[in-house]
Amino acid sequence: MSRDRQYSFTACLLAGVAAIALPAAAVHAQDAQTQTTEETVERADRIVVTGSRIARPEVATSAPLSVIDQQALTDRGFVQAGQALNDATSITPSVPQTAYSGGSSGGGQQYPSLFGLGAGRTLTLVNGRRTVATANGIGDPVVDTNSVPTGLLSRVEIVQGGGAAVYGSGAIAGVVNYVLRDDFEGVQIDAQTGISSRDDYPVHSLRLTAGRNFFDGRANLAANFEWSRSEPLLASARPETERARLLVANPADTGPSDGIPSLREIFDAHFWSFNANGVLFFPPAPITTAFITADGTPYPEGGVPLQMGPDGMPIAYNPGELAGVPFASGGDGLRYDELGALYSGVERRNINVIGHYDFDNGVRLSTELLWSHTQGEDARAGRPSNTILNPAASGAGAIQFDRSNPFLSADAVAALSAAYPAFGAGAPIFISKMWNDLLHDDSAFTTTEVYRALAALDGAVEFGNRDYDWSVSISHGRADGNTRSWGVWQTRFNNAIDAVLDSSGNIVCAINNDGDPATDDPACAPLNPFGEGNVSQEARDYINTVFGETYTNTQTNFLATFGGTAFRLPAGDLAFVAAYEYRYEEAEFVPRQANLLGLGRQGIPTASESGSYDTHEYSLEVLVPLIGGATSMPLVEDLEFSGVYRRVEHSIAGGENVWDAGLRWTVTSDFVLRASRSRNFRAPNLNQLFAPVQTANSSVGIDPCDFRYIDSGPNPSVRRANCEAEWAANPGYEALPSFQNSSTNFQTALVTTSGNAELRNELSDTTTYGFIFEPSFVPGLTIIADRVEVDLTDGLSVFGPAQFLAVCYDSSTQSQDFCSGFTRDATGQVVAANSSTVNAGRVHFRGEVYNINYDVPLDAVFSGDVGQLNLNLEATHVSRLETSVTGFDLSRTDGTVAQPDWVARLDAHYTRGPVRLTYTLNYLPEVLRQEGSNIENDPNPVVGNNFRHNVSGQFQVNERFSVRGGVNNLTDERPSYPTLDYGEIIGRYYFVGIRANL
């Protein structure tokens, strides 16, 4: 999309609101806002808003802040907070969904990521305090939105840009703060159910919240229990994935400027080299000509390939229209869309207790208690395979058999011998298959259980005729997680697949018939690989074992603050807050026994990991009124400076100084300017620092010298020259014009991963500036716009094989530090490589966030009680998002599917008496499918725009009962072609709910 079109879109948004607002300029607006901005969140005497610890008489900050309230979840039928966050235009949606068919849909956990900078760069708080991380104990300290208690949720405040000076590590892109209610009274039961228009993906929820005031209102205790469950959604359930679309090399392409894409689409994609029955091959011919055919005539010269049928007899096999290795269009191979699910199923249970007691001396004792249990189900986590594509060393290579295999009938041996005479003479045949019937279950489960307890004391003291606020709190949290899935015990698989006849004519495992008692295994049951559905239960029980991991995160956090007003300035009191925070984090990662012992296909053990660190953090925040009150002047009603300094002492990463400085200038009562500049940081996590050395077979990603990629990259001429020089020095390598690295797509290289104890903190500089416009001549209208700029250096980046290869060949001066990160064999194939984390990344973000809110004065147009109408438009514009893992090859993703240049949402809320109606429009613009997409390299370089319409209604039956219902994606808008996630793949979705206040 052109820049002119981008700014035209902005103009249209502003003009649309103005067209509604201006005719009613003289009318005073009603209060009716459910999803708002920081200027209208709360009008209490003194409040603390996210991004600061100073209590203020109004919600006034120098940095952008947006708010989602609890009513927004009800209006849209959301059952957990993450769904509402996904609707925020500045947050990259996080859903338990695979981006493409054939991939895992994950464990169901969701983590907010502001501006697409990564979940690890968005800090999550509960009531302004840190909470224990719920992700894998050695990864980024991120918090699953499933654990947030929606029944007691008052609002979600989102700071857009920075926050580390106030809250510490991780607040680079911003902060998400869940603010809970502390005054709930009564008993409320809420139930909801929903289902798609295709009668799938049901979601059910039940919530019970009870609270009571005690001691004449000085105390309150509230508890919330909630449960929700969503079922998995398989790839075959939607036409976008059921059509099994893939991109493959286009033989019609003649060059880089012929207007013909180098790639072409195929549909009904299959893996032609294997299926569930087992495709038959003979060695060692090239794979595409190595099919065993019915009459021995080579394929594709007229021979009909063979597969094993369910009855153990060879039958005809249609490989489809081959489109290179390993895909074909059509045929009898395994369908591509059978490999993955679209959405994981998620079940969550939360219990949250929150309470406080106000003593006579003004001290408040408060507590928060949380228990959360979440289980995600990835319904197609992975089925084992033994295919001709995999090397034997991987444990997943094709299965070799000869005529003596006892599962072959005489007729089968005869048919195979006729097709391949060498087989009759004792030569082997290979069977290549995906096992649909080998595992007890091909689902994977991720379970997380979170415990958190917090106690706090807050109070005020008077000294020198001034009041000072103080607060101390201590919290302890623990997250226990585990993953589990059935997998193949490789040694037992090898035992079972090697079957023979014993002296009585019974089929037995060869190890039990070799005359050596030392190798016997009485539990071994022979495995029949021929056809689908022939695996015995005994063999399945013998081969299956549980793989996965367990992890534990613990966090202890102590926070003490002291603040108030230090002295009087001409424009007002100088306010301050001093804070000390101590944090202890510990994580432990323990693989399950099968992983520890290396029982899997590659036979490589997984090591345990554990570690801990603590931090001592000191901060001082000030709010300095420069002009105001008696010192006001024309065009400067108020001018205030805010500043924060924080010193962090990290027991592993060392010390860091971060700061934040801001200005807020009230030009008139209608117009406010604001700006901020901050230094923020993120500390390396325990895995990045101390991951043990482990080696496993893996793919290496893109090899720059592969003929498919040699003329691309940031410096194509440099890349080609470096590759040509190395090939000239190694004449035994495969010819460069046709060189294709097999480890690009297949797990044929040994990759050694390890931690890096020399890591430093990653740093970012963030700048924001914008305005707030509340025109007195249009009461009820608020327009807010802010620019956000983030420049990150020393980014914590995973430096894997692809990165070592890229830096080596794309650098004018090749460095041995990078070129030694991988090893080629005598033919040029990459056979070994390293992977670790380094401080090499860079990020440059430029964007704006807009919010236009208008309470429409209907009573100015219509007489009588006609209700209240609120319109809210939120939009985020990303003008630049550049990232680099290596530090020099910046990749720009703004204006692509990964990061659209515009994301917008329009909300309309109408209330009259017991009726509440809501309409929401979600907009995504036309974008490139990926960076650099054009007709030369992509048959669909442009992805069309996407509009989703959502409607809901709520009716208050009486004081106790209300009912609601709605339709999300009313027009059943599909994801923009050819993506699965640019839009909503679930489709039209209905929900109904009921709420009872007892």
From TrEMBL:
Belongs to the TonB-dependent receptor family. It is found in: Cell outer membrane. GO terms for cellular component: cell outer membrane. Keywords: Cell outer membrane, Membrane, Receptor, TonB box. InterPro entries: Beta-barrel_TonB, Beta-barrel_TonB_sf, Plug_dom, Plug_dom_sf. It holds the Pfam family Plug. SUPFAM superfamilies: Porins (SSF56935). This is Outer membrane receptor family protein.
